[in-house]
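ok posting inputs for the adenosine-5'-triphosphate job
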Amino acid sequence: MAAGVLRRGAGDADAFRAGRPGRHPGARVPAQGSRGLMLLEARDLTKNFGGVRALDGAGFAIAEAGIVGLIGPNGAGKTTLFDMIAGRQFPDAGRVTLDGRDVTGLPPERRAALGLARTFQECRVFPEWTLRENLLFAARPRSFASALLRAFTRQEALPGGAAARAEELLRLATLDAYADAPASILSFGQRRMLEIASALMTRPRWLLLDEPAAGINPGLLDALGRFLRRAHADQGGLFLIVEHNMEFIMGLAGRIIVMHQGAVLADGPPEAVQSDEAVIEAYLG
Ligand SMILES: Nc1ncnc2c1ncn2[C@@H]1O[C@H](COP(=O)(O)OP(=O)(O)OP(=O)(O)O)[C@@H](O)[C@H]1O
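and the output
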């Protein structure tokens, strides 16, 4: 197991506590934002798969733009919760709101139209296409009308500013030197950054990242963290990140939500969560 990566096991609590003494024990969910609406709220989500209760009243509210980590031991319900927010799965009970709007029953494409984007555990880029082509593809309008236009005119109707946005993201990801090279020449970690850059092309208000640090060479983790910080400073919104690499997420996120057995166990700044005895206990299993 790589240093700083948390899985169930006796060494986990040590890795979890490493280096960061608790300073704000008991920190809870921040108050509502100035507009009075939550950027994202998951309320009392429940999901059963046959006899398995994957989510058991899970909920949290995020009022402010920022980078938020979603962590928890294997099987805690993180992916299921993520899928509920993205619309890939629907809850048995509970609801999800984006900017106060109930989106619980909306399919993923309707949520995308509202400004939600996500990446997946398996990296999705087109290896034969150049980096720039990958990014421009991500900016393509997905509507039926634009598909028709494309079919009849063979013209790509890209939104204004897409080319400039692609250059900007290539710079933020420090991939600009490879703009015209096929994505196949990139390392796995660089491909992951390209995939994230693609998701950022439309300046999503909500970006869901599923284990961005997984499988990435430790030498590239700093670059990935810098890219995410710079991208967030550039565009704002919420970056919600499921992650098992504790060192990475604790250094990146301003707030950590911990899940355990389908519910939220703790929620607060990294220092508080790392020194929370219930959280340490959950990781020890
Ligand atoms: N499609 C499914 N069918 C049956 N059980 C499922 C399904 N999806 C998830 N589960 C179960 O629900 C529970 C929560 O799974 P989930 O994948 O959400 O956890 P996780 O926190 O993302 O875990 P990991 O960190 O290992 O990815 C687990 O017990 C899992 O086996």
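notes: The longest helix spans residues 218-235. Confidence is low (pLDDT under 50) at residues 1-15, 17-34.
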